[in-house]
Design brief:
- The chain is of the alpha/beta class.
- The chain has twelve helices and 13 strands.
- A seven-stranded mixed β-sheet has the order 8-9-10-7-6-11-12, sandwiched between helices. It has a six-stranded mixed β-sheet with strand order 3-2-1-4-5-13, with helices on both faces.
- Helix 8 (179-191) links the parallel strand 6 and strand 7.
- Helix 2 packs across helix 3 (40-49).
- It starts with a helix and ends in a 5-residue tail after the last strand.
Length: 354
């Protein structure tokens, strides 16, 4: 509880160094291919370009400052983005000298390898922890909103539950952007983790008319086809495939659809309802006239927006009322290691349930 800033930085750096070693372990890569649902190129892309193994000193200091202090922390990890374990454990370890982690059963390979390679006596795996007996600390929950609600209802009185729940990325593309450059950059954001992360863009707000909107949609379709040749998409779950079919039917009825072997690009006319397609490299493009129009179009999903990407950074300021990751297109899935990836700050102190 009395660690200095330098001591906290030391503990976080130990995790980062271990993550770098794990990313080079061929046995871990093989296990990730077998368990994550990503293709081998998809796993390689995640480890080489989206695992934060080269953070700056300033970024790590911001992470430590944002982590706060807790007597102990238990981390419940998500299964969607396996490299997210590094950030989640780094935040927890910066906050506390005692950290336990419960990996998802479907995505435990990287987290377990990271904890083992770190060899930190203050960090351990404990998937069988009895939350009802947990006291004097924090529980960090990454995953579905229903999972967070469960822990908030189950945790003892006085335990702080920090929830990092459902989220999505939004892209804003202007009519004055080079459509080919913007499309190629956005496609890289879409392809990472097969679009299953809370930073993954699934909706594009396009500032322009139908003609330039169609040009951009065609360029994005071509960019996703090219990426599929290099980084093939993994398999979809049956429920994901059904959701894809429903989205395709809906957008084909009200707008225009570009269908690739492993992606969909849907373009809706101005005034059409906003559709949020399922994950799996599917993008919905909505035509908007202004920032106020854009805010109105995403009003029903604004609370879930965790990341905004654009070719024009200044235009996206004020799109949502809560803090969100803001970046240029192509960088949405590469946030600095400076704190929780979800900046919405969902945190409450639970009350006793009995």
């Amino acid at each position: 509880m009395n660690r200095t800033c330098d001591e906290r930085l030391r503990d976080v750096r130990r995790l980062v160094d271990a993550a770098r070693e794990v990313s080079l372990d061929a046995a871990v890569v093989e296990a990730l291919v077998a368990t994550t649902g990503l293709t081998r190129p998809g796993v390689t892309l995640a480890l080489e370009e989206h695992l934060e193994t080269r953070p700056s000193e300033d970024e790590l200091r911001r992470l430590v400052e944002r982590a706060g202090t807790a007597e102990r922390v238990h981390v419940v990890l998500s299964s969607n983005v396996f490299v997210g374990a590094l950030r989640a454990l780094a935040v927890a370890r910066a906050a506390s000298e005692r950290v336990t982690a419960a990996p998802s059963r479907r995505a435990s390979v990287f987290a377990r390898a990271l904890v083992e390679r770190t060899a930190d006596p203050g960090l351990s795996i404990d998937g069988a922890l009895d939350i009802r007996k947990f006291g004097g600390g924090e529980i960090h929950v990454y995953g579905r909103d229903s999972t967070i609600a469960h822990f908030r209802a189950s945790a003892p009185k006085g335990v702080r539950v920090r929830g990092h729940g459902s989220g999505l990325g939004i892209a804003l593309v202007t009519s004055w952007a080079d459509p080919t450059v913007a499309a190629r950059a956005l496609a890289r954001d879409v392809a990472a983790f097969d679009q299953r992360g809370c930073l993954s863009p699934r909706v594009v707000l396009f500032f322009g008319g139908e003609g330039v909107g169609q040009e951009f949609s065609s360029e994005l379709d071509r960019a996703l086809v090219s990426l599929e040749d290099v980084v093939p998409r993994g398999n979809l779950e049956p429920q994901e495939s059904m959701a894809v079919a429903r989205y395709a039917d809906a957008i084909a009825f009200v707008g225009r659809l570009w269908r690739g072997k492993a992606h969909l690009v849907g373009l809706a006319p101005k005034g059409a309802p906003l559709f949020v397609p399922p994950s799996g490299r599917h993008i919905h493009i909505a035509l908007v006239e202004s920032l106020s129009d854009a805010r109105a179009r995403i009003a029903t999903v604004a609370q879930f927006v965790t990341a905004v990407g654009s070719d024009d950074i200044e235009i996206v300021r004020g799109l949502v009322d809560h803090p969100a990751r803001v970046s240029r297109l192509g960088e949405m899935q590469r946030p600095p290691l400076d704190g929780p990836v979800d900046m919405r700050g969902q945190s409450v102190v639970t009350e006793a349930t009995s």
